[in-house]
Amino acid sequence: MIYLDNSATTPMHPEVIDVMTDVMKKIFGNPSSLHGLGAKAERLVEQARQVTARMLGCTPQEIFFTSGGTEANNLAIKGTLDRIHGRGKHIITTKVEHPSVYEVYEQLKKRGWRVTYLSVDSLGRVNPDEVEKAVDDETVLVSVMHVNNEVGTIQPIGEIGKRLAKYPKVLFHVDAVQSFAKLPLLPARAHIDLLSISAHKIHGPKGIGALYVRKNLSLEPLLVGGGQEKGLRSGTEYVPGIAGLAKAIVLAEQKRTEFLRNSQRWKKAFLERLDGKLSPMIVNGDISPEGCAPYILSLSFPGIKSEVLVHALEEEGIYVSSKSACSSKAEIPSRVLKAMGRTDEEAIGSIRISMGFQTTAEEMERCADVLLRVIPRLQKVMKVHKG
Ligand SMILES: Cc1ncc(COP(=O)(O)O)c(C=O)c1O
Predict the structure, then answer these.
(1) How far is the CA of 182 from the centre of ligand 1 (A)?
(2) Reduced to 3 states, what is the DSSP secondary structure of residue 174?
(3) Mind listing the pLDDT tens digit for each residue in 296-318?
(4) Would strands 171-175 and 139-143 be described as parallel, antiparallel, or unpaired?
(5) Given the CA of residue 71, which atom of ligand 1 is nearest to it?
(6) Could you tell me which PANTHER family the record lists for this protein (predicted)?
(7) What does the alpha-carbon distance between residue 84 and residue 88 come to, in Å, rounded to a whole number?
(8) Residue 292 bears catalytic tag
(9) Separation of CA 38 and ligand 1 centre (Å)
């Protein structure tokens, strides 16, 4: 099996599984319990908070564990807006956000918030000038993702943060789920107030993530109850998951430099292998080393439906992602690719290839070779169908 769908989720690292198994067996106390077993679990949670904070260059007090990126994004946005009554009614995001941000803004629009959805260029990038232009007296929150999950384009977060820092009333939220522990981004340096992360994109477990909340910023909780996470996120802590997240971060610290170097090299070799041999083929997003996460590659083959291609690759033992399917399996072109100016046909015929720490050069070569064989065959079949 060749697994190249690491932006959807990554296989857990065996050492993460070992740590979690150990915690499940031995440190099963409730961190809120007053006895020694509880204290042990609490210590583990606090150690993990320190590890997470170190990766983000912040203090442990600024880290709040959640059930993942979706909850972190919801908490960042709704928790902010629920707290700042009357300070303004305008919020800004982009047309290419992950649904866990985009759909929250859609929900808020229905509740009466004025929402600006920023456009992107053909590479999927927002212009910091446009962000600043969109800010008005009523603006209270801006959400811009770091790395786009469909095409890998990196947004100019540092520059946007610098611009927004001129407007003290405006809070800046960044969804860093696709970049955390891989690409450097320090919230304080980039003037970020809120930043979301998730463990399962870095070979950690599913169902655990965290929200960075800048010091002195107060949010309204989404979940109330026992008052865990300093009252911001009630619910007994998922201790094995939190320990697994910390282990995944430590492993990422060791592996990321080599991973970035390799994935950049392999992506380039992959595209060179296909170069000029498959037509029509479009590379979506930025592929420059500075402008794109090297571990994500999005390709469009207009005329071929991505589901068909995903299944054809699966028959060859290669797992990639299609971006056109929604839950109903209807052919809805990707909102992200449409925002980048792709036609419906181009957006429906896209696949995403994404690498993880376990990916090898040989796997990428094999994937390219299979595409070289499979695409012309599918193109022929599609032509016959159309004819
Ligand atoms: C950019 C981005 N944000 C948020 C999420 C949601 O994270 P989680 O699956 O941990 O809820 C994802 C997951 O695909 C993502 O890619």
Answers:
(1) 15
(2) strand
(3) 999 999 999 999 999 999 999 99
(4) parallel
(5) 11
(6) CYSTEINE DESULFURASE ISCS 2-RELATED (PTHR11601:SF50), CYSTEINE DESULFURYLASE FAMILY MEMBER (PTHR11601)
(7) 8
(8) no
(9) 31
